[in-house]
Design a protein that fits this description.
The chain has 258 residues and is α+β, with helices and mostly antiparallel strands. The protein contains four helices and 15 strands. Helices cover 27% and strands 25% of the residues.
Length: 258
């Protein structure tokens, strides 16, 4: 599949969807506290989608049963929300969410602290968030996809963390997953050339321990093999002649951290 370059009008539609995603993620983050279940957070996301007349993109996609992928502690991605999974003080919880609005997708993820968390957990979240900003900063015309992954890998690995390699970022638009694939590791100057009009969902998944992951018996929830903590941050980003524009952040921010 060839990479689809988006027109300004199409980017505006993707931004609308991504802004809804940002608003839902913000609401879920404000609701995160000890005693709340992952099912409660999923219900909140669905209720907001109904209120705003938009469609939760993940529900039913590939058979996923819920609206939000909610992953706790050693869970990396694709955790299934449940009323039985109650958050405890010291947990970290990743909420990965997408919306369809006017035929276009938005996609983003955040990792939240549940009450007071350990220094290890806080540092992991900070490093993962920073690695996303560094990836975003590479989204300028003339660079290559390998520059994005290298920006993540070269930042987190020297700090003692590992990069999940089994799951990668992706193009986004009329489909949730479009070309190009965007790994969170790589060699600079390699891969597809970045062009204005590209829209990508960048999503580093970073671990305190090793990078190996396994899928649980529910056939969805992905966990670290060593059961060490993992964090996940994601944004939908448009490449423009003036640099990257982060479509899923409510402040409408440009750029990242070079």
């Amino acid at each position: 599949m060839a990479v689809s370059l988006k027109s300004p009008a199409q980017i505006a539609h993707i931004r609308e969807s991504a802004q809804y995603v940002g608003r839902v993620l913000q609401a879920m983050g404000e609701a995160v506290e000890p005693g709340v279940s992952t099912g409660d957070l999923d219900d909140l996301a669905e209720s907001l989608c109904r209120e705003w007349g938009v469609v939760p993109a993940f529900k039913g996609m590939y058979g996923f049963p819920k609206a939000v992928c909610i992953s706790v502690n050693e869970e990396v991605v694709h955790g299934i929300p449940s009323a039985d999974r109650v958050l405890n003080e010291g947990d970290i919880v990743s909420t990965d969410f997408g919306i369809i609005c006017n035929g276009f997708f938005g996609d983003a993820a955040r990792t939240w602290a549940v009450g007071q968390v350990s220094d290890e957990a806080r540092q992991l979240m900070d490093v993962t968030r920073e690695s996303l900003d560094r990836a975003i900063a590479q989204c300028v015309p003339g660079k290559r996809i390998g520059d994005i992954g290298h920006a993540v890998q070269s930042f987190v690995e020297p700090a003692g963390y590992s990069v999940v390699r089994d799951y990668v970022g992706h193009g986004i638009g009329r489909k949730l997953h479009e070309d190009p694939q965007v790994p969170n590791y790589g060699r600079p100057g390699r891969g597809e050339r970045i062009k204005a009009g590209m829209v990508v969902a960048l999503e580093p998944m970073i671990c305190c321990g090793g990078a190996e992951v396994v899928t649980l018996e529910d056939e969805w929830t992905v966990v670290t093999k060593d059961r060490r903590l993992s964090a996940h941050f994601e944004d939908t980003v448009a490449v423009t002649e003036d640099g990257p524009v982060v479509l899923s952040r409510l402040d409408g921010s440009h750029g990242g951290t070079p």
